[in-house]
Write a structure and sequence with these properties.
The longest helix is centred in the middle third of the chain and has 22 residues. The chain has 15 helices and four strands. By secondary structure, the chain is mainly alpha-helical. The strands form two sheets. The protein has a two-stranded antiparallel ribbon with strand order 1-2. A two-stranded antiparallel sheet has the order 3-4. The protein folds into three domains: 196 residues, no CATH class; 61 residues, no CATH class; 103 residues, no CATH class.
């Protein structure tokens, strides 16, 4: 449903809400152009692959990353704080993205201990989940699109009604399933994880069966039985490069699991200096200042850096010196309660580092430097 909604939105270009406001695909394209120009993304995963989706139209994660609150936050910040003219009037688009994202989160809860919109549906969260799904239904039912006669008609009354009807049916079905499995007397469940109702598990299982046949991806009954036996006896279905990604630890056809605990370690040993200071070129182009856009992105990145540093710093005064009570407006917009507010000194260090990268990029013709001496070029 999410892919079909993305396809219809991109093809139409402009959708109109019940109250006459316009939802434009152009804002998504402008945000991608801005991020490509600046070289940093405004805390979202939007890339050229999301714009040119026709080359990878079956990949669900491209549609899910587009209909996200992070893209909505970036659009809102560009309009309200940066005052970029190309984003003027994007409020309806922002609201549309957030509505679809919230409904998608409710329909994909997979952790019994999840928080917020990703929490399972249970008596304490049922009201919020129902309100989100009803809001999404109202929003989707009110979408209008221009037909061949250039007249506005409701999208659910056209040939592109599939994603609208699909989302509405999913929302209503989830509520009915919850009432049957959780709320009724002697119900078998205490909560409902909606991701367990997803078809992702089948989409992960079918490629595993096809892979058993080598070059033959259309097995007959006898070949399918042999592949099924091999999967049943000794195999754990893992994610591949298909249309969907594995989102939880659901085991399919597993009788002898062998979960290995792999310790991931990061080598933080000092890097040997491969060039002397005299061998480093000094004719770097000067970068005097950073744009407001980059300052916003760097402040967000600095918050992540501070979070990692506080895990290593044991001294309380040093730990307190990393943070501040005030924060950049973009951090305030993105803050859901877990973002660290970096101090001005840490932000200044990260901004100086970004300027060093910009100098290196200009020196290397817009390409990131590679090979020996890169670290010394940055720190010198």
């Amino acid at each position: 449903m999410l892919k079909l909604l993305r396809n219809s939105f991109s093809t139409a270009g402009v959708l109109e809400t019940e109250d006459g406001k316009q939802i434009r695909w152009q804002y998504i394209e402008e945000l991608n152009k801005l991020q490509e120009k600046e070289g940093l993304r405004l805390s979202n995963k939007l890339k050229m692959a999301h714009i040119n989706w026709r080359q990878q139209k079956m990949k669900v994660h491209l549609a899910a990353q587009l209909f996200s609150s992070s893209v909505a936050d970036a659009l809102e910040y560009c309009e309200q704080e940066l005052n970029y003219p190309q984003f003027r009037g994007c409020a309806a688009t922002v609201q549309f993205l957030r509505t679809v994202d919230a409904a998608f989160d409710v329909l994909n809860s997979r952790n019994p201990f999840g928080k917020g919109l990703k929490a399972p549906i249970k008596p304490s969260t049922k009201g919020r989940a129902r309100a989100i799904l009803e809001k999404a239904e109202s929003c989707l039912r009110g979408l209008k699109v221009k037909n061949k006669s250039n007249n506005l008609v409701y999208m659910h009354a056209t040939q592109k009604k599939t994603p609208i009807c699909g989302f509405i049916a999913c929302g209503r079905s989830v509520i009915n399933i919850y009432e049957d499995l959780v709320e009724r007397p002697s119900a078998p469940c205490r909560y409902l994880l909606t991701y367990k109702l997803s078809q992702d598990h089948l989409e992960l299982f079918f490629p595993a069966v096809r892979a058993r046949g080598g070059f033959n991806n259309n097995p007959n009954a006898r070949q399918f039985r042999g592949a099924y036996k091999r999967l049943l006896v000794r195999h754990q279905v893992k994610k591949g490069t298909g249309n969907c990604l594995l989102r939880d630890n659901t085991d399919i056809l597993d009788s002898t699991p062998a979960n290995a605990n792999v310790a991931c370690r990061v080598d933080v040993a000092p890097v040997e200096v491969l060039l002397t200071k005299d061998e480093i070129p000094t004719d770097f182009p000067d970068v005097d200042s950073l744009s407001e856009y980059k300052e916003a992105v760097i402040s967000y990145i600095t918050g992540f850096i501070v979070k990692k540093m506080k895990q290593k710093v044991t001294s309380m005064p040093c730990s307190l010196a990393l943070t501040s009570d005030s924060a950049h407006p973009f951090l305030e917009l993105k803050n859901r309660g877990g973002i660290q507010k970096p101090s001005a000194g840490i932000i200044a260090i990260c901004q100086a580092t970004e300027k060093c990268f910009q100098r290196l990029l200009k020196t290397n013709g817009g390409k990131a430097p590679q090979g020996r001496g890169t670290i010394m070029q940055i720190v010198s």
